[in-house]
Specification:
two-stranded antiparallel sheet, about 35% helix, about 300 residues, 7-stranded mixed sheet, single chain, alpha/beta, globular
């Protein structure tokens, strides 16, 4: 005999199965005309939002950008030269959770038109040559796997060899669990390359933290910059808020793990609105690395 609780549970499951499916627009806003601000909830016209560098007109909140948009805003037109763009991840652990890791990779590659969660290359920033790496959160949450670690390491080695200023734009959920310890070892590999770049070659590395920057990325190269910049109200941390509260058995401040909170406690050097980033980088490089600035004749 079925109990009343079992009957209610069966009815709930039946409603879920028969509910109409809602096709949510793609996360990068490539389809559809409108989107909603994650912070204030105001409805935004995507075309105008892109023109405003994905900064909300209502509250000034900085929404997520894909890697190509960031490159377009930081690099002079026509000067971008991509590096190692054909590097593609494999599946060394034959990982399978709700679906196979290879299937997740294929879906992300088709949706973002990237091979993995970062674009690296060289270009001009107001005629100053730089090496730039930009993580893309739309590719599996910007997680750092073997390919991401290898591309960043190769970029650092190339910048060391050519004497270029290095800029890394971070946006990541952390290490990629589907690759296990092979993902975690990228933290040490990148940090080792940065040690040579900064201490032996004495070159300038600027880390830019966007929302979110968490996990193994925060625990490695994101916090190793000679200068660490961030966007306003960016989520930056290692473990999640809920994990920390349950571990410490304490209530955390409302602004905990925001860029403003970290700046107040000395972890960041500067918070810069998105529209001023390119100019701020020019002034920073001109001040700290004047030999990289072209001589005006």
């Amino acid at each position: 005999i079925m109990s009343i609780l079992d009957w209610i549970e069966d009815q709930r499951k039946l409603k879920l199965l028969n509910a109409p499916k809602y096709n949510h627009p793609t996360s990068d806003g490539s389809k559809g005309l409108w989107t909603r601000c994650d912070h204030c909830g105001v409805i935004l016209y995507i075309k105008h939002l892109k023109e405003n560098r994905r900064v909300c007109f209502g509250c000034g909140y900085h929404l997520q950008m894909n890697s190509q948009e960031r490159i377009d805003h930081l690099i002079d037109a026509g000067t971008w030269r991509s590096l190692d763009e054909t590097l593609s991840p494999c599946d060394p652990l034959q990982f399978f959770d709700q679906k196979a890791y290879t299937d997740r990779l294929k879906e992300s590659q088709e949706r973002t038109e990237l091979q993995d969660a970062i674009e690296t290359g060289t270009g001009m920033l107001y005629d100053i040559p730089i090496a730039l790496g930009v993580m893309d959160f739309y590719f599996m949450g910007g997680s750092m796997g073997s390919v991401v670690g290898e591309k960043i390491t190769r970029l650092i080695e190339y910048a060391t060899q050519e004497g270029l200023t290095l800029i890394l734009v971070c946006a990541s959920g952390g290490a990629r669990m589907q690759e296990g310890v092979l993902s975690l070892m990228q933290m040490a590999k990148i940090s080792g390359a940065l040690q040579i770049y900064q201490s032996c070659a004495n070159l300038l590395y600027i880390s830019i933290l966007t929302s979110p920057t968490t996990g193994g990325v925060t625990a490695s190269f994101a916090m190793l910059g000679d200068l660490i910049f961030a966007e306003p109200k960016a989520l930056i941390g290692f473990a999640g808020r809920r994990v920390i509260e349950q571990t410490l058995q304490e209530q955390l401040p409302d602004d905990f793990q925001t860029s403003e909170y970290l700046l107040h406690h000395g972890l960041l050097d500067l918070i810069i609105p998105r529209s001023f980033f390119k100019s701020a980088l020019l002034e920073t490089i001109t001040l700290l690395n004047p030999f990289s600035v072209p001589i005006k004749r």
